[in-house]
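PROTOCOL LOG
Step 1. Enter all chains and additional molecules of the complex.
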Amino acid sequence: MKRIVSNDNFFARVYAVVARIPFGRVTTYGAIAEYIGSKSSARMVGWALNSDKTNLDMPYHRVVNRNGELTGSKYYPNPNMMRELLESEGVEFIENAVDIKKYFWKP
DNA sequence: CGGGTGACTTTAC
DNA sequence: CGTAAAGCCACCC
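Step 2. Run joint prediction.
Step 3. Record the structure below.
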């Protein structure tokens, strides 16, 4: 039995949501996962970002965890790159996390 | 088909 | 603040 939605759609959905994030806004893995249909599968979102080979130009830096922490910054060439990208968009930081309450955006 | 893995989240201690 | 555990789903071998 094949699943009705999965595979290509999963990646496509992640890309679509990330690409839709407005300038100067951020979203969470959970929000993307929920929009995709699997609210509990936030891991899949992060996994998709790191596994994607087709849309490396995607603004992944606008995707943060529920606390607003840049968990993905570790996987960037430079750990500071992700933060500076967000700061350059006008996003305010609190310690090592973005003001998720203020800049959170959801599809 | 099963086991391992993971850029997450929540609850619990 | 830290670790632990469970839930979750798709990919890779």
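Step 4. Note key features.
Residues 28-30, 33, 39-51, 60, 63-66, 70-75 of chain A lie near DNA strand B (CB under 10 Å from a C1').
The two ends of chain A are 31 Å apart (CA to CA).
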